[in-house]
Structures are given as C-alpha cells and as structure tokens.
Amino acid sequence: MSERTARVDELLREEISRIVAREIGDPRVGFVTITKVEVTPDLGHAVVWASVIGQSDERAATIRALGRAMPFVRHRLGVLRLRRIPELHLKLDDTAERGTRLLTIMQELEAGHEPDVPPLTETLPTPKRRPSVDEETAPGAEDET
User: Fold this and answer.
1) Three-state SS across 40-97?
2) pTM of this prediction?
3) Is residue 63 within 8 Å of 16, Cβ to Cβ?
4) Can you give the residue range of the structural domain that contains 68?
5) DSSP state, 130?
6) What separation in angstroms does the CA of 98 have from each of 23, 32, 42, 78, 118?
7) CATH number at residue 44
8) What is the C-alpha to C-alpha distance for residues 50 and 96, in angstroms, rounded to an integer?
9) Residue 109 counted as domain residue
10) How far apart are CA 81 and CA 87, in angstroms?
11) Which residues lie below 8 Å from residue 58, measured CB to CB, with a gap of 6+?
12) Please, is 20 exposed, middle or buried when counting C-beta atoms within 10 Å of its C-beta (0-12, 13-18, 19+)?
C-alpha cells in the first residue's frame, strides 16, 4: 500500500464515520463504527469495514440499512474534492466479537475449565485413505470407494 492510498483510506474512514453518525436518519442504523476503509490503488473501489453493536439480527438489519445508504454516503463524499470518489462496498467487521470470544475461552482455560466452544464445521471434505501399492496388487483386493 502506498502512502497516498493510506492517507485516502484514513480520510475516507473519518468522513464516512462523520456522515453515518450525523447525516443518516434511518433508525435501523444503530451503533455503528467505521473501523477501516481499504481503497484500491486506482480509487475505483473501497471496502468499508463496519462494526455494529447488538444482537445478530440487529446487526444484520443495521448492515442492510447501511448498505442501502452507501450511495447517499458516496454522494456526500463529494465534499472531499477527490478526483474520483470510489464505489463503496460494505463489510461487517466482527473482530471485536471474535476477540471477546477468544478472551472468554482463555479465561475458562486459565480457570481449569473445559471451554464451551462449539465444534468447527468442516469446510473441506475429509480425504479418504488411499490404498498402498501392496494393497492394490494383493489378490482379492477390492475397491472400497
């Protein structure tokens, strides 16, 4: 990342935060913090990371409402006098939630308890064991797949 894009990232983060806090009148947009903005080098697109406080359904509603408000926010960014105002792509920033979960697990481990962690869902299929060369050539070997 160049120094220029880093400055634009921070400028956009500050201005988007100001617009969301003061100019969006949608009551569904609750407690939102714009945590980070990542602009492409050509200033064509920007990913806006937003952290939302609340229950999962409230967070989802807030992100949907904020996503619908992004064209308004982009229009209001015209005051920055940039050559090109990027298209804004909103993403939920759940790092605070994941950090809190990690701290809870660590505290349970320190206390000597087994942490109450839901099992991870498998994202890739479990590979099947391949027969060795000896098993393939052995008489009576059958394919078990």
Assistant:
1) CCCCCEEEEEEEECCCHHHHHHHHHHHHHHHHHHHHHHHHHCCCCCCEEEEEECCHHH
2) 0.70
3) no
4) 3-98
5) P
6) 30, 17, 32, 35, 13
7) 3.30.300.20
8) 11
9) no
10) 15
11) 30, 52
12) buried
Please write the tens of the pLDDT for every residue from 21-64: 999 988 888 788 999 999 998 889 999 999 988 888 888 899 99
Six-digit token string for 132: 């060795």
Q: Is 64 a domain residue?
A: yes
50 in a domain, yes or no?
yes
| Total domains, the chain | 1
Q: Is residue 73 assigned to a domain?
A: yes
Half-sphere exposure of 50 (CA within 13 A, CB side): 28
The residues with which 89 forms a beta bridge, in sequence order, are 47
Q: What is the DSSP letter of 19?
A: H
